[in-house]
Design brief:
40 residues, mainly alpha, 3 helices, rod-shaped
Length: 40
Amino acid sequence: MTLLAAAVATALCTPPVRRVFRYVVEPRLDGVFRGTGPRV
């Protein structure tokens, strides 16, 4: 069981898998910070 878990963790760290799930793990926050600067 531990060997299977290590294999899954290794597979999830490969570049193709990281590229597919990048939009979930690293959301773009451009819209969140738009227009929130100090008004002078």
